[in-house]
Amino acid sequence: MDRWFWVAVRQVWPGWKASLLVVKPETVVEWHRRAFRRYWRLKSKAKQIGRTPISKELQQLIFQMASENPTWGAPRIHGELKMLGFDVAERTISRWMQRQPRNTDPAQRWLSFLRNHREAIVAMDFFTMPTVTFHLLYCSFIIAHDRRRVLHLNVTDHPTSTWITQQIRETFPDEAGARYLILDHDGKYGFEVPAAIRAMGIVPLHTALRSPWQNGVAERWIGSCRRELLDHVIPVSERHLRRLVSDCVDYYHDDRTHLGLDKQTPNGRTRSGSDGMVISFPRIGGLHHRYERAA
Question: Does the pTM of the predicted model rise above 0.70?
């Protein structure tokens, strides 16, 4: 039969040899395997096996809830999804939570921790400033963590533990407005300052040696005060420096916007209207300005 087939092919198609392709046996086997995989892929798509897969939107929502709420389990997320109108099994949520990408950055958890405790935390520190006669002055301040407000500020040329204790008492005259006070290991504190802090019902927290970043809010305010005021003036006396720094604190509280406060001021600045001419008001002797719209 094969001879009769080739005789018939030569009679009907004389130029059949021109269409021949020379291939290796491995190539033919690879073609067959590809066709086999394609065949079963199409056959598997013909009918669905198992449960209906959840949508991409629901997957991302499960990941978001699990990431933003680390203490939530599948039952809690399942309840939230039911309130949103999603019809999904709790077991499905549990399986998708196991596929959640791991967040190796603990910044978000630390940020939540600090936001929950910042109302009870204040910090204190010192910075120095030479006068025109090269006399060194010490500026002491206490700053709150919640709104970055400077609660107390004073200047002296000879800081002692008794003087520092008096500044803390003036900051909290009646009752302690904070639970923790962060300070470094400065020798000026001695034993009297931590004892006085504990007597007021405040827990003193000492930073590690040579670790200024552990008192970041206070160090950041010192940097802002130096860049915006002290790098541009030379104080004449203790009284002069106290007046300059007090003006800087007023500008810091009422006029200067802060990135950590969502571009607001510590005392809460009211936004101007959308109409009217813009007017500038000098602050700190003209080093900075505040802008408002005229009525």
Answer: no
